[in-house]
């Protein structure tokens, strides 16, 4: 059985604190955290261990963090996605793309955000379907990632989100199109001016227009 979650989190933080002996002293702390992560029964404590490994910045912890992507608890998977981004960078892109299909919207959102941060343009095809994700947070994160790629391939799908029912998604879609096209957006329609669902089905209407 794992130790008390608060005690474990405290131990993880202490293990991540740099010691006077420098980098070499980090190695046993890293191994200690790796072992602790493997035996912990508390989801919160496992997430704390991952965060502590990330703080140490030692890639030795990557294998156990990769394994944590399959953890049954979303908080652990969320910490693991951050860990992959921080420790592996672009080399962790395959793991991040896999997490785009996680059952947790928080995990999907963070995976999309991290792919955008590392500018992994090869992920464009995997991100595009998520523009129809049921979570507005995920749709917004995907739009931001595609904007970071300056992906002209994504313009038609992002343009469709100018009619998204959520205002924040429409705003981010507009901003993404500005970044990709290099032109500003104007002509926003009010809520009652937006086309009906029937009208959109027959002939999709943009709620913004591009101006020079």
Describe the structure in your own words.
By secondary structure, the protein is mainly α. The chain has helices spanning 5-16, 26-39, 43-56, 62-68, 74-88, 93-98, 105-117, 124-127, 136-149, 155-160, 167-181, 197-202; strands at residues 184-186, 209-211. It is built from twelve helices and two strands, in the order αααααααααααβαβ. It has a two-stranded antiparallel sheet. Helix 2 runs antiparallel to helix 3, helix 4 (62-68) runs antiparallel to helix 5 and helix 9 runs parallel beside helix 11 (167-181).
Mean pLDDT, nearest integer?
Answer: 81
Give the SSE string: HHHHHHHHHHHEHE
Rg, nearest Å: 21 Å
Which stretches are poorly predicted, pLDDT < 50 over at least 5 residues? 18-23, 187-212
**Percent of residues in beta strands:** under 5%
Largest sheet data: 2 strands, antiparallel
Structural class: mainly alpha
Bin the helical content: 55-70%
Question: Helical element count?
Answer: 12
- In spatial order, strands of the major sheet run 1-2
**Overall number of strands:** 2
Please give the alpha-carbon distance between the first and last residues: 64 Å
Q: What is the molecular shape? A: elongated
Give the secondary structure arrangement, pairings included.
Layout: H1 5-16, H2 26-39, H3 43-56, H4 62-68, H5 74-88, H6 93-98, H7 105-117, H8 124-127, H9 136-149, H10 155-160, H11 167-181, E1 184-186, H12 197-202, E2 209-211
Antiparallel strand pairs: 1-2
Helix pairs in contact: 1-3, 2-3, 3-5, 4-5, 5-7, 7-9, 9-11
